[in-house]
Write a structure and sequence with these properties.
The chain contains ten helices and twelve strands. The protein has two domains: about 120 residues, D-Maltodextrin-Binding Protein, domain 2 (3-Layer(aba) Sandwich); about 130 residues, D-Maltodextrin-Binding Protein, domain 2 (3-Layer(aba) Sandwich), CATH 3.40.190.10. By secondary structure, it is an alpha/beta fold. Strands 1, 2, 3, 4, 5, 6, 7, 8, 9, 10, 11 and 12 form a twelve-stranded mixed sheet that branches. Helix 9 crosses helix 10.
Length: about 300
């Protein structure tokens, strides 16, 4: 009976030691991290795919995507309101179209642009439209309101419906610089806030024409490239909204990968992720992932990767 007390004390000591050992061996839960990216809606599909894959690798990291357009994205990063911006705008010194969009650029302001790929602004019409190709001059005549009926361009008779993007869109900036020049887009144009809205509107309106990032047309262009860069036909096995869309060649060239890589397509634009100064921490890790072989493979599903 005298050994019970010492034995009880020994059990208590062992229990305390075991609990202490469990505490020291416990794996701490990683702190939740949220990365916020805002800007170009042209980059939304590829950024969503990149974010999903990155979050699968790092479950504690969530990536929030905001829109607003390239101009707002750059301004928000510059003002410290956003961690990471998405932009299709050339750096200020290259806005005339000169220079290499692939090179990383640090401008006089604190913005640091990291190129992740090349995009093309695709001109799209309804699948029932017979126009396969347009020159830059014809596009300017259409969007300035000089050509009012599709019959003038070889399609069925019908009033042309113009679809443009909102002010601040990188796609609109490039389109106006490369296509419109000194001409203004007609005031009759329907202005859409996102690339998705442009696709949806044209799919529902047989007389409409608009422009959108090729990233929103990946299945169409993948089929086109497999068919030898011929203009996609409405008879191709494309489902959903894209089944009602056709991509029009510009100056005889479609925005397929080779044409963008060689910069033969006249409406080629860069894809940048923008930070305020050199990225650090999780921003750096995300950018490293985007530029890694795995990340560039994902970019290649929507655009032309740079590596």
């Amino acid at each position: 009976m005298r050994s019970v007390a010492p034995f009880s004390s020994l059990v208590a000591v062992v229990a305390i030691l075991l609990l202490a050992g469990c505490d020291s061996l416990a794996v701490s839960t990683p702190e939740p991290v949220t990365l916020t990216i805002g800007g170009a809606t042209a980059m939304r599909p590829v950024l969503r795919a990149l974010a999903d894959d990155f979050s699968r690798q790092h479950p504690n990291v969530s990536v929030s995507l905001l829109g607003g357009g390239s101009t707002l994205g750059e301004a928000s990063v510059r003002n410290g309101e956003l961690q990471l911006g998405a932009s299709t705008l050339f750096p200020p010194e290259q806005r005339t179209g000169a220079g290499d969009p692939i090179s990383a650029t640090v401008t006089a302001d604190p913005l640091r642009r990291t190129p992740i790929g090349l995009d093309g602004i695709a001109v799209i019409v309804h699948a029932t439209n017979d126009v396969d190709e347009l020159s830059l001059v014809q596009l300017q005549d259409l969007f300035s309101g000089k050509v009012l009926d599709w019959q003038a361009l070889g399609s069925n008779s019908g009033e042309v419906m113009l679809v443009s993007r909102e002010d601040g869109s990188g796609s609109r900036t490039l389109f106006e610089e490369r296509v419109m020049g000194e001409e203004r887009v007609s005031l009759t144009a329907v202005v859409m806030p996102t690339s998705e809205d442009v696709v949806t509107y044209i799919a529902a309106n047989p007389q409409a024409i608009g422009y959108v990032s090729r990233g929103h047309l990946a299945p169409l262009l993948a089929t086109s490239e497999a068919a030898g860069a011929e203009p996609p036909s409405s008879s191709l096995p494309i489902s959903g909204t894209l089944a009602s869309i056709r991509v029009v060649a510009v100056e005889g060239v479609l925005p397929v990968s080779d044409a963008l890589r060689e910069q033969r397509y006249p409406l080629t634009q860069p894809l940048y992720l923008i930070t305020q100064g050199p990225p650090t921490g999780w921003l750096r890790r995300f950018l490293d992932f985007v530029l890694s072989p795995a990340g560039q493979t994902i970019v290649g599903r929507f655009h032309v990767p740079i590596r």
